[in-house]
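To assess whether the prediction recovers the assembly geometry, we first specified each molecular entity separately, as shown.
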Amino acid sequence: MARTPIGPLEYTRRTWMRLTLLATFVFLYAPIVTLVAFSFNDSRRNIVWRGFTTKYYEKALGNSDLIEAFVNSLTIALLSTVIATVLGALTALLLWRFRFPFKAGYEGAMALPIVIPEICMGVAMLAFFAKVGWPSGLPWPLSLSAIIIAHVSFSFPFVAVVVRARLAGFNQELAEAAQDLGASEWRVFWDVMVPFMRPGLVAGALLAFTLSLDDFVITFFTSGPDTVTFPVKVYSMVRFSVTPEVNAASTVLIVLTVVLTGIALWMQFRQEKKSS
Amino acid sequence: MSSSGTAPAANSGSPIIEVSGLCKRFGSFSAVENIDLTIGRGEFFALLGPSGCGKTTLLRMLAGLELPSDGTIRIDGQDMSFVPANKRPINMVFQSYAVFPHMSVLDNVGYGLRIDGVPGDEIRRRAEEALELVKLGGFGARRPDQLSGGQRQRVALARALVKRPKVLLLDEPLSALDAKLREAMRLELVNLQETVGITFVIVTHDQSEALSMATRIAVMNQGTVQQIAPPAELYEFPASRFVADFIGSVNLLEGRVEAASGGRIRLACPGIATPIEMEQDRLPAVGSTGWVALRPEKIDITKEPPVEAGMNTVSGKVEEITYLGETSVYHVRIAPDLPLMKVSSANLDRVTRRAFTWEDPVHLSWTSSCGVVLDR
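The predicted structure of the complete assembly is given in tokenized form:
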């Protein structure tokens, strides 16, 4: 049987396309696969494979500094995500709903944290907190406040951009219909606007969460001596040597973020399926 | 229930809506200009006009979604000019239907009652009744995107009617439906209105929609009301060239009024040999410019000159023929620099056997009482 000729849109049957695809996957996932594989390596060095073990997971879980850093990171990510999502959604609403002087300027200034190099943001935050004399040595969740504020300030523009894009497709007649049926502005917001914005809110929150969880540069500049986050802790461990313990801790983090993202996407999918 | 075509007991008691001196300006643009209007209880009232004439702005001001720049709106005797939409005894069916996509059909219909704090089981009962009324019984559990456009519109209708408003506003309700469904929906809306007895105010740019449904029509243009009249009066006695041209098809012959007395008007029209004589109560001033408005179906087209006396007659040549199935429209050249006269004639016989064809010389004739003379 003769092969059918390759159609104009059958890109996956072209060799160069397949090679590109393969290269992409290798560059994207080979490091991650290596990281996960060597977390089970029974060796103190990450160079040669010497057999399977899970002892570095035990070691990582037993490392109280690492666990503390991990809990700090999750707490910061959770709190900053909540604040950034609310702030970002309100910013998006403001930009979508109202016209005011210097709106274009405001919109640009609001989106600046997206483009400003992280290192500059970090230095700026450090200078700012030093200048205002932000108290250090506060009891636990409050000791994270400087980092949380820094994280909110660079992640809320991402939420705002995502929610703003979602709102562009909003049919104003939906809000007017609710109002016509007797709803106050407040009820219109909760009954019509929020359900409409929900996919944007979920996507924005996911973005803010991952941005916060893996941020190193800005956190490094704003964290005090006794508030260490997971990326900062890993960095300090790697400075001595890359042990499988670091691999194990990183693998746990990867699994956790993948699972959390999966749950969020599944919830959103279920929501959309319910409403369709 | 059937639509008898006669106006139901309209204008009984005090009017439900009184609009006076109403203006709406957006910057320097005047969308609605000094409108006075009264709508009676139980009327099916249509706001008709081309796009951009201000009809939707007027409707939105009645709903409370726009606030007037000037003037007052009284609903059931109460001044409601600046009362917000959620506090008016009026509900609206939006052009896009605006059915809430994240709620079931039943939740959509019950939404207004839930806002009002009606108990749950009563909401359910009344919402189901309303769905029954618009022939969507049993659709309560569906999601809006499982419905067709026509069904979504019924949900919007039920949702607005379930609150038992004093007035129901409909913004271009049939424009998104296909032609067959639109015809059926016209009759259904009229029947529904008779069943519930609520005043309906409908906005449309489709004259046949307004003529077939409304008890009275307000024709609007450039923010002002041109004429308010029942459909037949609007068609037979338009008040201006705009109305005559907008409602149906019309031939306008411009002329100078030579004589006007005793209910008879004589006009001299350039390009037409004999003066045109028309009968009318309202007489224009002698010497002024007037326009004879003639509907195409009221003009006779014949090969021979008409034998009866007292007919207005012009002769011409058939230039175009438009075949429309039940009728044909003949476009007749009566003078080199006058627009073609449109004459429609029923196709009583097969089209191959029709009496005239292109380039045939014909005579057009009409009685003095079958048209009107307009002065603006």
